[in-house]
Design brief:
Blueprint (H helix, E strand, L loop, with lengths): L1 H18 L5 H10 L5 H14 L17 H13 L3 H16 L7
Helix pairs in contact: 2-5, 3-5, 4-5
Bound molecules: heme C (HEC).
The site of heme C has 15 residues, from helix 4.
């Protein structure tokens, strides 16, 4: 039973990692349409904070869960009232999640 739980856990972690991709140069270009000074380091930091702060109470929501228009208010509410993180961290998460949402998925076939 215990090993089954570990296998399920590993499958879950793998799924999360692919649905919450590392930022790419293509994603940075999309981010810079909204935030001209955005950097790849900022997006990477936003992803790190998102993964750490937004998976404690529920599964980490994939960027595809909401639209680019819906995300900022949700991240603001979740970040300020639930995760209790700083405004700066909320902004980093927003940059990462919104630009990840707007980046087309790489074709695998
Ligand atoms: C302290 C617990 C907690 C933390 C931390 C937390 N959430 Fe939530 N989240 C909830 C609860 C409870 C709900 C469902 C009820 C609600 O919407 O208020 C929810 C719902 C959501 C939803 C679905 C709501 C919708 O509008 O579809 C999203 C998306 C979400 N959270 C994103 C985040 C993000 C992003 C973070 C990190 C900044 C985060 N959550 C951190 C407790 C938490």
């Amino acid at each position: 039973m215990k090993s089954m739980a570990i296998v399920m856990l590993l499958i879950g972690l793998t799924a999360c990692a692919t649905m919450v991709p590392e930022p790419t140069p293509a994603q940075l270009e999309i981010a810079q349409n909204r935030w001209p000074t955005a950097t790849l380091a900022e997006l990477t930091e936003g992803r790190r904070i998102f993964v750490n702060q937004c998976s404690g109470c529920h599964n980490l929501p994939p960027p595809s869960e909401l639209t680019p228009a819906e995300w900022p208010a949700t991240i603001q509410e979740m970040g300020a009232e639930y995760a209790k993180i700083s405004a700066a961290d909320i902004e980093l998460i927003t940059k990462y999640v919104v630009s990840a949402r707007e980046t087309p998925e790489p074709k695998t076939d």
